[in-house]
Amino acid sequence: MSARTGIGTTITFGTSSFTALVRNYNDLGVDRAILDVTHMGSSVAASTFNGNASGVFREKSPGKLFGIKDMSIDILFDPDTVPPVDEAVETITLQFLPDTGQSTGASFAFSGFISEISAAVPYDDLCTATITLAATGEPTWTAGAV
């Protein structure tokens, strides 16, 4: 495994064909439900924490439901190309540059839509926007290929 930068990563919207110059992705990942299974009969016998007698520690179990986290993306904002916040669910793909020795880079694809956009238009600097993506279903991680 090598250290990587995000330079060259692109985003593609399959149906609307929206593209953007991406500056940053946040919260790229999947979460899983945590079930609190503590009950009235949970053991209190001689549990200690930091050498002190304590009460009952919660009991937790992994849930069966997973979800793609809502993802925020910082882009350079072009007011002539407004992000498709009014579109239906479409395939969204993040494509990474190939690592040394690879012919294609890794990719992360999922079904989703833009749920929010917030633009900043400063006096004398780049126009930027933050897009929030909501995902549905199971994502596809594809490793880069040699």
Quick recap:
With 146 residues, the protein is an all-beta fold.
Structure description:
It is built from no helices and ten strands. It is an all-beta fold and 146 residues long. It has two domains: 1-29 and 69-146, Roll (Pnp Oxidase, Chain A); 34-64, no CATH class. Strands 1-8-9-10-7-2 form a six-stranded antiparallel β-sheet, with no helix packed on it. A two-stranded antiparallel sheet has the order 3-6.
List key phrases describing it.
146 residues, mainly beta, Pnp Oxidase, Chain A, 2 domains, 6-stranded antiparallel beta sheet, two-stranded antiparallel sheet, 10 strands, 0% helix, elongated
Secondary-structure blueprint:
Blueprint: E1 10-13, E2 21-26, E3 30-36, E4 48-49, E5 52-53, E6 60-68, E7 71-76, E8 90-95, E9 107-120, E10 128-142
Antiparallel strand pairs: 1-8, 2-7, 3-6, 4-5, 7-10, 8-9, 9-10
Helix and strand content put the structural class at mainly beta
Strand content: over 45%
Rounded radius of gyration (Å): 21 Å
Helix content: under 10%
- What global shape is seen? elongated
E-strand count: 10
For the termini, the CA-CA separation is 14 Å
Number of helical runs? 0
Biggest sheet statistics: 6 strands, antiparallel
